[in-house]
């Protein structure tokens, strides 16, 4: 199977907001050079989940894992995402779509956030 990943985030008009998700995609691309990865957004910026998945399928992906880049499983993850994935399955019947839990639900992520929170703060920088 040609396995691809979509990192799904909320979205923002501010391009700086997208930088962390794009950094995760760049790291995946560097660590797994054969793995296709795309960022997608629910609103306020492009590409949408449908567009990102369509690009991957057009490039030969037969299995797509959607990774919700959310700290928790709020309404977008619980209600919106299942409907969007159902639409993807209808649009691409020969492709397997899987959805991971919200990234913040992973104990490794919460452990890392706790470690970072407990570190000595860096010198204050004005915003």
UniProtKB/TrEMBL annotation:
Keyword Lyase applies: yes
Gene3D superfamilies given in the database record: 3.40.50.1400
Top-level taxon of the source organism: Bacteria
Keyword Metal-binding: yes
Assigned keywords, A-Z: Lyase, Metal-binding
SUPFAM superfamilies: Chelatase (SSF53800)
Pfam families: CbiX
GO molecular function, one term: metal ion binding
InterPro entries the record matches: CbiX-like (IPR002762), Sirohydro_Cobaltochel/CbiX (IPR050963)
Entry protein name: Cobalamin (Vitamin B12) biosynthesis CbiX protein
The species this protein was found in: Verminephrobacter eiseniae (strain EF01-2)
């Amino acid at each position: 199977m040609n396995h691809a990943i979509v990192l799904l985030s909320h979205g923002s008009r501010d391009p700086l907001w997208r930088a962390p998700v794009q950094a995760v995609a760049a790291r995946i691309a560097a660590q797994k050079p054969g793995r296709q990865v795309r960022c997608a957004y629910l609103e306020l910026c492009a590409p949408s989940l449908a567009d990102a998945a369509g690009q991957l399928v057009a490039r030969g992906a037969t299995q797509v894992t959607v990774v919700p880049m959310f700290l928790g499983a709020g309404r977008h993850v619980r209600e919106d995402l299942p409907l969007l994935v159902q639409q993807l399955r209808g649009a691409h019947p020969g492709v397997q779509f899987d959805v991971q839990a919200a990234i913040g639900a992973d104990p490794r992520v919460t452990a890392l956030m706790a470690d970072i929170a407990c570190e000595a703060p860096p010198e204050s920088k004005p915003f």
